[in-house]
Amino acid sequence: GQNIDQPTEMTATEGAIVQINCTYQTSGFNGLFWYQQHAGEAPTFLSYNVLDGLEEKGRFSSFLSRSKGYSYLLLKELQMKDSASYLCAPRETGANNLFFGTGTRLTVIP
Amino acid sequence: EAQVTQNPRYLITVTGKKLTVTCSQNMNHEYMSWYRQDPGLGLRQIYYSMNVEVTDKGDVPEGYKVSRKEKRNFPLILESPSPNQTSLYFCASRSGTEAFFGQGTRLTVV
Q: DSSP 3-state assignment of B77?
């Protein structure tokens, strides 16, 4: 089984940088996904990390430390449209299922 | 364009009246799954399918059925819906490193 922990809510200012943390415990590990979800809409894929380190993709970066069971999503130059929930989803070894945390609701204020 | 298509988007029905939510993907993915999303509980997996004629229960399968007669389609069946199945439902289709979600079906059972 999996245990996934993310902060429930965060607030940040437009133009700033925010880091959303995720800690997890899994029976084996085979990568971690980050998704963005606007209210009432489908989750959209942001990143996938399987090796330790930082993966950068435009304004969004994702970091993974497998030994610590820890990941974070870094959002730079925040825009109002970044207000959304961010979902962390680790995958267990050999499992085809994605298990999602309850997500972090980010509010970007002017 | 890679797509997962769910229908209907919105549905209000009465207790006990059988219904089917359809899901179709055009990416030739072997793996498909159904989730429900409720406030404070995040995305919970209902059923998943690793290939044609191969389905298995997720975390919350009670009250639901699925079938996978062809690779592209994965319908969700509620034989006798009850009010506790009022929720937002998502179908997902996945390759090794990315999952695509349908637009969602908001179901209300009265």
A: strand
Tens-digit pLDDT profile for residues B67-96: 999 999 999 999 999 999 999 999 999 887
Do residues A58 and A75 make contact, with C-beta atoms less than 8 angstroms apart? no
* Chain B neighbors of A33, CB-CB under 8 A: 99
Residue B42 DSSP one-character state: E
pLDDT in tens, A6-35: 999 999 999 999 999 999 988 778 889 999
CA distance B92 to chain A (A): 10
For chain A, the residue count is: 110
Does A98 touch chain B if contact means CB atoms closer than 8 Å? Answer: yes
Instruction: Tell me the sheet residues that pair with B11.
Output: B107
Lowest mean pLDDT among A69-83, B9-23, B33-47, B60-74: B33-47
Q: What residues are paired with B78 via a beta bridge?
A: B19
Name A41's Cβ contacts closer than 8 Å, sequence gap at least 6.
B103, B104
Residues of B in contact with A96 (CB under 8 A): 31, 48, 50, 94
pLDDT of res. A94: 65
Task: Say which residue the tokens 């399987």 belong to.
Answer: A50
Provide CB contacts within 8 A for B2, sequence distance 6+. Answer: B26, B27, B100
